[in-house]
User: What shape does this take?
Amino acid sequence: MKKSSISGFERRNTKNFYAFISPWLIGFLVLTVYPMFESFRLSLTDTGFTGTGGYIGFANFLTAFTADTRYWISFRNTLVYVLMFVPLNLILSFFLGWLLSRKVRCLGFFRSVFYIPYLTAGVAVTIMWGWLFNGSYGLINYVLSMFGISGPNWLGDKNTALMCIVLMNLWSIGNNILIMLSGIQDIPQSYYESAEIDGASTFRQIFTITIPLSTPTIFFNLVIGIINAFQLFNQPYILTDGGPVDSTRTMSMLVFQNAFEYGKMGYASAVAWTLFVAIMAITLIVQSTSRKWVFYGD
Amino acid sequence: MRKNSSYRTRRAVGRTLVYIILILCTVISIMPFLWMILTSVKSTAEAYRFPPSIIPKKWLWINYTNGLGKANFLLFFKNTVLVSLLCTVGTVISAQVVAYGFARFQCKGSKLWYTLMMATMMLPSQVTLIPQYLLYLKMGMVDTYWPLIIPAWLGGGAFNIFLFIQFFRTLPKELNEAAYIDGASTLQTFVHIMMPSVKSVSLCVLVMSLVYNWNDFFQPLIYINSTQKFTLAIGLQFLNSSMGQTKIGQMMAVAVTTMIPVLIIFFLCQRYFIEGIKMSGIKD
Assistant: This one.
C-alpha cells in the first residue's frame, strides 16, 4: 500500500520532469546528439553539397594532416590566437575588475563604458575596427604618427593581422570585466580588514586574498574563453577573408569555407572533428589542473 | 604620526593612479565610436586624407539617408526585429519551462540529464554545424528563418536554462505545496505562481537574448541566402564587401544606425544587464 503510493509519487515526478524538459530534450537529441554522430559519419565520406556521398575511410583526415597545406596553417593561427587572447583577456579583465572594486566614484559610469563595447560587438564594430586599423588613413596610425612612429599596414600585413584581431577582441571584454568585478565584490570585507591589521600591503592582499578567492571565476572565464577563442570566425571572415597570405585563416574558417563555399561537407566535418577533439583535449587538461589551483571554499 | 601621513600620501597616489587608468580605458572604449560617428558624416574625399581632419569640414548628414537607402536597409531592419523578437520570446519561455523541470522534479536519471545539459555549454558549435545544416536542408528550411528560431524555442541554450534553475532553486517548496492543496495542477502552478516569481530573471534573459540575436552573424550567414531575407548583420557585411572601401562615410553611417537599437535597450534596461551578469558569476 505504502510502496505503491511512493511509486505513484515517483511516477508523477518522472512524468513531470520529462514533460517540462521535453523542449530541451528534443533539441538535444535532434540538434546536438544526432549531429555529433552524423558529423563523425560524414567525416568518413566524400559527401558533397547535396548531402550524398560514399564511405572513404579516414581519407579526409589524411588529406587534412598531409595534403591540405592550409590545415596546419589554420591550426597554428588558431592556436596562436588562443595563446595570445585567452591569457591577456584573463589578466586584463581581472585587473580592470579589481580596479572597479576599489570603491571608485561613478562606478555606474565606468561599468557602462566597459560594457558597451561588449554589447555592440558585431559586424558594425568589426567594420569600425577595419577602418581604425586602415594602414594609410586609420586613426591608429594617425595617433602613432603624432609620436613619430610610422605604423604598419596592420590588417594588410601578414605579421600584424592576427594581432589586430586579438586587440579588437580585447577591446570588447567588458562582460568578463564585470563578471570578475562581481566575483571580487563577493569576497567578505573582513578578510581585507584583518590583512590590513597584519600590515599586508595592497599588493600582497591581491595575491593572498583577491586572486585565490577569485579562482572559481577565473577558472570559469578561462574554460569558456578557450572554447570561444578556438572558434574565432567573424572578424577574420569579415575583415581579411583569412588573408593576407593565410595569416588569419582559422580552423572555423576552414570548416566554413570547405562546407559552404567548396561544398565539401565530408572534408569539412573531418576538420570540424579535429577542432572538436583539440578543444576537448585542452579543456580536459585545464580542468584536470583545476583541483590544484581553484579554491572552492569550505 | 609620520608613518600615518606617508601612508596617507601612498593611498592618495594609489587612488589617483586608479582613476588615471580608468579614464585612459574610458578614452580607449569611447574613441573608436566617436571616430566612427565622425567618419559617418565625412565625404569620401575627406575620409581618405592623411593626416585626417578630426572635425568634419562639412557635416554630410546625407550619408545616413544615402547609405540606408542602399540595399533596402529598412527591410533588413524589419527582418532583424522579427527574428530577434521571435528568438527572444522563445528563449524566455522555453528556458524557464525546462529549468523548472530540472529544478523541481527529481527522478531516476534527472541528474544525468542535468550534467549533459550543462556539458553542452562546452560543445563547440562547429561539430554539429554541418549535419544541422543538412537536416534543415532536407526539411526545406534553408533560406527561411526556421533554423534561427527553432533552437530558441527548444530551451534557448544551456546558459539561459542554468540562470533560471539557479533562481527556481531558491524558491521555497511550500509554494508548490500550497498550490497543490488548493487543487492547482502542475501546469497551473507553473504558469500562475512560478512564472511570475522569476520575472526578474526573465527580464535579464530577455534583454541579453535580444541583444545576442540582434548581433548574431554566423547563423544568418549560413542559413539565409536571398537578399530580401537578410538581417542587419549580414546586410551590413554584404554592403561592406561591395562598397566598404569606396563609400566609407555611408558605410559608417549604416553601421552606426544598426547599433542604435542595442544602445537604446541598454540605457533603458541597464539594471537587468547588470543583474544578469551578477547571476552568471558561476561559483559551483
Summary: Chain B touches chain A through 98 residues (CB under 8 Å). Chain B has a mean pLDDT of 89.
